[in-house]
Amino acid sequence: MRLVNTSIKRPVGVIMIVLAILAMGFISFRSLPVDLYPDIDLPIAVVATQYDDAAPQEVEELVTKQVEDSVGTIEGVDSIQSQSQPGSSLVMIMFSMDTDLDQAMLDVRESVDQVKGFLPDSASDPSVLRFDPQQLPVMWIGLTGADQSTLQNLAENEVEPLFSRQSGVGSVDIEGGQSEEVQVVLDDERLSQYGLTTQDVMDSVRAANQSASLGVIDRGTQELQLRMPGKYESLDEIRDTHIQTGEGDFLRLADVATVERTTTDQNQQTLVNGEQAVVTSILKQTDANTVSVSDEIIASLDDVRTNLPEEVSIDVVFDTAEFIRMSIDSVFQNILIGAAFAVLILLLFLKSFRATLVIGLSIPIAVITAFSLMYFAGETVNILTMGGLALGIGMMVDSSIVILEHIYTYRERGYSIKEAARLGASEIAPAVIASTTTTLVVFLPIVFVEGIASEIFTPLALTVAFALIASLAASVTLIPMLSSKLLTKAVDQGGRRYWFDRFLDRVINVYQKALRGVLRFRKTTILTTLVLIVASVFMIPQLGAAFIPEADQGQIEISVETPSGTNFDTTRDVTDRVNTILEDDEDVIESNFVTVGGGGAAGGGMAAGGGSSNTASYMVQLVPEGERDRTTDEVMQDWNDQTEDIAGADITVSAMGASISGGSPVQIQITGDDYDTLQQLGDQFVQIISEVDGVHNPTTSAEESRPEMQITLDRDVASEYGLTQQQVMGQLQMNMMGQVATQFRNDGEELNVRVMTPEDSRDTIEDIRNMNVQAPTGAMLTLKDIAELEQVEGPTTLTRQNQERQINVTSDVLDRDLGSVTTDIEEALSGLDMPDGYDYSMGGEAQDMQNAFQDLAIALVFSIFLVYAVMAVQFENFLHPFTIMFSLPATIVGIVFGLFVTGLPFSIPAFIGVIMLAGIVVNNAIVLVDYINILREKGKERYEAVLEAGGNRLRPILMTTLTTVLGMIPLSIGLGQGAEAQQPLAVVIIFGLTVSMLFTLLLIPVVYTIFDDLSAKFTKRKE
């Protein structure tokens, strides 16, 4: 080939090109963003609407349904989910994966604009946003060492502004602190004595805290601005505020109220490692990189510390990038170990350091070139793309091995080293290109198939393809050139490694004896193979199924929920008991923080909705896996067993993995019309699935009804006193929650001045009944004179799926595979008698797994067809490729055996491994069948040709198989952090390729002879 000749004639040019590629690769690698998983742009739009003071039923009927109807006809909509909560509506529109989200967002905005006019007047304009369910904070930074108010001020004034300026930071949220305000607590008796109302006080305070510009006057040649200052400058000035009574007398505010600067009521508490703290959570921008943002924040911490008091500490509580860094480092180590194994195999077979160096150079060239191609393709460095390089580390030398073997063949025939390099590489290059192409084409369907499996593994497929293309280019250019310069003599048949040649000769002899045996008993060989294949197929259900193995980050989340309506102090008492459990296991805990009364330790972004006093959430980071004697699941199970003894709360302990799926492992969607019936069904489903082995922490989304006291105004009675519902509502809000009258600025701070009634006047229901309401006429009434108070219960959240009411029953999976648990759940629910109009379906990770398997099955079929097409072009024959394809069914024996031995379920990574095997296992058969045909063309009898081809091709087949298999050994045993996602893939390829090699060496010659006989009979009949 011209390319081979040119590379030999112009070695300096080849070397310069290689150096340029290496330099570009290093630059590209440093520029590539680093993340745990590839970026998955899920096409989800969110429509959020506020409808203050409306019950969930009203929000659902007047807002949610209107929005659902408007967006339901948009092209590409896959499903619509909605939540109607008191005062707010949230509608999530999920589009199919191939939807252009930019255009879809425009369509959603247009549809929502058309429905705005039909919404209630008091409802806000709907906001249309993109939503990423995986958008969680990158880091949590804790401030400790001072009171909550001081920490809050430091977080707002020193920490948050600096963090927000860092590159890639989207937002900074602060939780756990307390803000200060000026509280004006009224004395009801004194107000009544002077005939004043709370509104009179509000108006006086607001009017007294004003400054105004009064114009300009001339004074000589100057213009003077007239200004009357009146802003409060101290608390004493607030106390001295004058209030005019109805008789025209003036009082001081201090005569009818107490004025104090104090902290707001605390309905939230955050503890970091048991110490009062304020925590800032950092969310990255949509297109930003997790590790880069983490590096920016860590670098800025020193600047923050210089602006903080000495007693205040600021430390990283959780950093999600830390696990990413450890995972990428582990994959790099696996790549190096795999490369070392591959080089040792080459050294063992080639018996030459120079020959090993020539082939070994293919590995760094392929890897670094792949980085350049990844950069231009817009990929990131993550555990899947790097895992792809680790998986392909052995395959990168296959082409070079075949090229070098053929060069040595010509060298042994007496050709000069340059002629041997030119002729050997040129002759075998087409076969090498075809062989590599069969491996590459299997990735095409993965790239073009739709669904989450394609989104996740397309980067892996591209990375492996880039590396193989680079190694192929190196094998047909660099290898011949280096061979012509470095390999000055033929292969040394003696030397200190002669023992291996003798061992290899024995292996060849044993193989040829076995080959004679299977050729003699062809029917028995075929029957035995079929029995093994059928037995393996029947074993598949025993393996179980899973989505994608989650990386064990050593993080545990604990959610605490007391009965709806429980106050903050009671919830905090429950968390104190949970804290005691954690203190007993402090040797396995690196850090933890808990938020009591809202927010959420693991919250952030849109997922962190407003909390309530009956909830608390923990995030616990365990010490590294090597420093503890229990796995994360074992620690989680221990804590779960202990928290079950805590009465009065629903406590859920779950591991926080790097999940790619947006849903829970088990999610049962129950639909129907009546919310109470759905709630009963949800409780029934929870009881049923709790009996299934492997189900962990089953819960229902149907929250407990929240008790509330409804105040129903008697409009007829109220109107007699000149009162409207709005006036009564305003006075009650003022009495219960207070009202901000103005702001007080002092020493660079701006505090709210809140006018409120004493707390002891609104403690009980009877206090509320006797609460004063003043009529416009001046008459003072009690609330019970004009309204009825009744305690009722109602839903806190109404959920809908595709415009039907729905609740979700969700569960984690522990100590079993997802597929087996899902099958048992479906069997347990199969006999359930559902009411008319009610139905259920499986969703979540189980549904994602099923869809992904369907997509990958289609990809596998197309991959096999493409492999056959490539071989048909190579052989210019339809029969020989068909013969070679018989190496594929036998692969299932190795796949099932490998997964069974290692105890791994069949998962999406394992399925990807099966698809990769479709292109890998045929290479050995191609080498064997091709050489049989060459020998027969030279006049060899078929039987002798098969025996000789098997003996001659055993060496390169062993070399290529061993380099590929040993290169994947580190991944197959799960070395390092984050190896869980690649382990099933590596196991499938190792066992599948190894067993397939054995079948290729024995079964393919048998199949070859059978088809050759059939072809001969057909030819004779035709003649």
UniProtKB/TrEMBL annotation:
Enumerate the InterPro entries for this protein. AcrB_DN_DC_subdom, Acrflvin-R
Q: Which Pfam families does the record associate with it?
A: ACR_tran (PF00873)
Arranged from A to Z, the UniProt key words for this protein are: Membrane, Transmembrane, Transmembrane helix
Transmembrane regions: 12-29, 331-350, 357-377, 383-407, 428-448, 460-479, 526-548, 856-875, 882-904, 910-933, 954-973, 985-1011
| Transmembrane helix as UniProt keyword | yes
**PANTHER family in UniProt:** PTHR32063, SWARMING MOTILITY PROTEIN SWRC (PTHR32063:SF0)
Q: What is this protein called in UniProt? A: HAE1 family hydrophobic/amphiphilic exporter-1
